[in-house]
Amino acid sequence: MIATIPPLWRDADAYVQTTENPLIATFWGYAPAYCYVAKVPLFVGERFERWRENAPAAARESSQPRLTDSGIWLLIVGQHLALCGAAFYFIIAVSYFFWVRLALAMAWASNSLFYTFAHCVGSETLGLILIVLLVGKGLRLIQSRGEPRWKGWYVYAVILCLCFLSRSLNLGLISLLPAAFLLSLMLNRAAARCASSVPQRLWLRRLGARDLRYALIAIAIGFASLAMASYATHGVARKTRFHPHSRIGFTFLWRLQFLEDLSPDSRVALMRRMAARARSPRVRQLIELREQMLAERADMSSGPYMQRAIELYGGNFHWEELDRGLNQMALTFLLPPSLEILNAAREDLVTVLKSPSTVVSYYLFATTSYYFGHQEEMSQCAGLVTFRNSHADQIALLPSQHLYLHLWQGLSYLTVFIAWLVLLLVFAVMARRRRTNMRAIAAFGIALTAVGFLVFASACLVHNLEARFAVTMWQLLLLSLFLFAGKTVDLFARPA
């Protein structure tokens, strides 16, 4: 892929993350981790090209490194290496047998989802890599034979904190380990009731008590990691005028695009219900402005709406106040969610469940083509190899020229989920036959799939359908699938 496909881009979002001051990017709602990490290879690449006297001329010196081919390639190669390292860390924890590890590595490499994101500039890539590391570390904590060392918990906390800092949607990962330990607790309690002997019953109860203790530790670590992420985000901006804040309301504007699909009567009735539910006059005005623009058949993209909405708050110096108002508007629609929003979210969810993972990979080629219609907005990209002497149709044709990107095209999420269920059943049967307690592993695998699904379902409530939101759901399902596949083969390979 590195040799045949130029670096991909997550449209204007990636451009902001790589060219703006991280403080400004964070103020506008971008997760800070990638904004800082990406600057390192970009800086090295810029200095290298300046040394070669090939860097683009700048009218004035900027505090941020400029985009160069060398810097972007250093970033892309670093992302590929980090993904390979994270995958290796996960796979060696899944199985003890070399040939099983090799088979898992080949299956992992056959799915273009992971490596297409590694080949793309954008914060989702860092989030994807960190999730693999998080699952690998969580698996080691789950299958620890003795009491996990506190060092292991600390490392898990740091990775979880970085997950929060890499992507807002990763907040759902806070429930991963607690859910796994609580499910393991329930499985051990159920097994204790069916135990045939008193010693076995007592042993299973002790395991249940241990699971409860670990669940409480995992909950505490989750909230501590969340607090650390919040402190880090606000700490670096403490002495500036750029105050990081939630922009969930701005994101929700994309979800409100479903209003255009409603009949005029249904739309007016819904907007009036929401306006009556609003807790402040300003929020009511924001809802009424949305209704007014729909009635005018105005451009309903975020830009025109925001320009008219900011006037309600006194002009361009009050964006933070507008964001708070939009957050309140989003909560007005979502607490509780109306039937119309639930139907729109359900349609998006069903669409993705019926789609293969290759759709997510193709999405990155579409976002790369975004540049050709917004060249002034992404001016530093003009000289990069991805866009130099290229055009949108040429980028769009790239997936059709590489068989690797189509290997999983016939496997929808539902198909892979059915395979996952079959593997889970085989794994449970084999563990029972081998008289091996694998309930914690089973609980962790189930938690992976459940958390991934819930993360995507929550994204469907606050944003319209975009393939990038399905990445975490697909990733956690595949990690769980590989986990059960490796552990099942391990059980087969053990002597009876």
Defining traits:
1% strand, two-stranded parallel ribbon, 496 residues, single chain
Q: Can you walk me through this structure?
A:
With about 500 residues, the protein is mainly α. The chain has a domain at about 250-335. It has helices spanning about 10-20, 20-25, 30-35, 40-50, 70-95, 100-110, 110-120, 125-140, 150-165, 175-195, 200-235, 250-255, 265-275, 280-295, 300-310, 320-335, 340-355, 360-370, 390-395, 415-435, 440-460, 470-495, and strands at about 10, 120. The protein has a two-stranded parallel ribbon. Helix 8 packs parallel to helix 22 (about 470-495). The chain is globular and about 75 Å long. The two termini are about 45 Å apart.
State the major sheet: 2 strands, parallel
Overall shape: it is globular
Strand order of the largest sheet: 1-2
Low-confidence stretches: none
Q: Using only CA atoms, what is the Rg?
A: 24 Å
- What percent strand? under 5%
* Number of discrete helical segments: 22
Order of helices and strands: EHHHHHHHEHHHHHHHHHHHHHHH
What's the end-to-end separation, in Å? 44 Å
Mean pLDDT: 91
Class by SSE composition: mainly alpha
